[in-house]
Each structure stands twice: as C-alpha cells, then as structure tokens.
Amino acid sequence: MSRSESTLAVPQVGLLALFVTALVTAQVTAAKVLAFDIPFAFPVAGDTLILPGAALAYALTFFASDCYAELYGRRAAQVMVNVGFLMNFVLLALVWSTIAAPILPNSGIEQSQFASVLGPSTGVVAGSLLAYIVSQNWDVLVFHRLREATDGDALWLRNVASTASSQLIDTVIFVTVAFLLFQGLPLSVVLSLMVGQYVLKLLIALVDTPFVYLVVRAVPERSGGVDSLSFGR
C-alpha cells in the first residue's frame, strides 16, 4: 500500500468507526429520558428540555455521514448508512442473547437490572430503526442534491440543511413511535420530547459545521463526488 493509500484509509476508517460507535451508543442509551433546565422557555417545552438519552450520540452519526458523503460520494455514504441499519440487528441480537444467557449466581449485577438497562423496549427498537433508515437516507440525498445545485460550493449550507431536515424527520418518527404509540405518553409530553430533542440536534448541526470543514480539509486527497467505497482511491 502506498503512502497516499494508507493516508486516505485512516480518515475513511475513522469516519466509519465514529459513525458505528455513535450509532451503537445511541441504540443502547435511547430508553433513558433526560431533562435539562434552561434559563429561558421554549414553545411547548417550557424551561425544561426533555429528550431521549440517545440524542447526542445519534446527532454525531449525521456529522460522520456528512463528512463521509463529502469525501467519498453519495453511493459510499448510502452503503455506510444501510450497512449501519443492518448492524442494528446484530447489536440487538447480541444484547438479547446476552440477556437470555444464564447469569452467575450471586453476580454483582442481577439479571433483572442488566435486562432493564440494556434491553431496549419494543417501542424504542421500532421507533429507532424506522427513524434511522428514513432520516439517514434523506440526509445523504439532500446533501448531494444541494452539492449538485451549488456546484460543490457552500459546504456549510448542505451540512446544516441536510442535517436540520433529516434530524427533524428522525425526531418526529422516533418520538411518535417509541413514546406516543408504544408507551402511550400524553401528547404534551411527546411534543416536549420532540422540541427538546430537535433543539439539541439543531444546535449540534450548527456547531459541528466548522468541524466538518476541518475534517474535509484535513484529508490530503479525497474522492469527493466519486461514488466509491474502496480504500485506495
């Protein structure tokens, strides 16, 4: 492998690793609901932002996918997103099989505790998977439509626009399925969850834009627009 090939492989593998790590973290932390007091009030949410525990980790997947799409093209990004979708099932199979396996008597962690923490509910799984496959593919599509429309300029625009729109789709689908349809939470709570989650995700989309530029410019050679997943181009 030449120096250029090994140099290119490092950021490519790094972005893939970040995407998968954030995705797995989001899946295992989705059931916890967080509450943050803020010094001012948002419509619907009030002065407390309520959001699923996965919000921060999941937002990082869009940062990784936008960097990856810019560097390696639409097809490569879609392959990453759809393979990541399948890896969700691998994660679930591993977690559920571990929960089902017999536990050592007098273990420091009881079976019920382990299951309650790592065993995602049906609603969380269904909402997470549906929101993921729709929003991530939408993100890649919008990112490249804007890239074509701007002749490759205005990276900030396609990063913010694609992430903001896809995060809105993701938030609405996930919260509706996981917390409204399956858990039957009151609509007011569901709307607060949507607002809290989306506000955080939108803030991350704005803050991460300089870092997208930093990652893209740090790669000495890129295939931007070349729809390839190979490591040596």
Structure description:
Helix 1 (3-29) packs antiparallel against helix 2, helix 2 runs antiparallel to helix 6 (155-181) and helix 2 (55-72) runs parallel beside helix 8. The protein has one domain: Arp2/3 complex 21 kDa subunit ARPC3 (Orthogonal Bundle). The model is unreliable at 224-233 (pLDDT under 50). It has 233 residues and is mainly alpha-helical. Strand 1 (33-42) and strand 2 form a beta hairpin. It has helices at residues 3-29, 55-72, 74-100, 111-118, 122-149, 155-181, 187-207, 209-218, and strands at 33-42, 46-52.
Gist of the model:
With 233 residues, this protein is mainly α.
List keywords for this structure.
single chain; 233 residues; mainly alpha; Arp2/3 complex 21 kDa subunit ARPC3; two-stranded antiparallel sheet; 8 helices; 71% helix; disordered C terminus
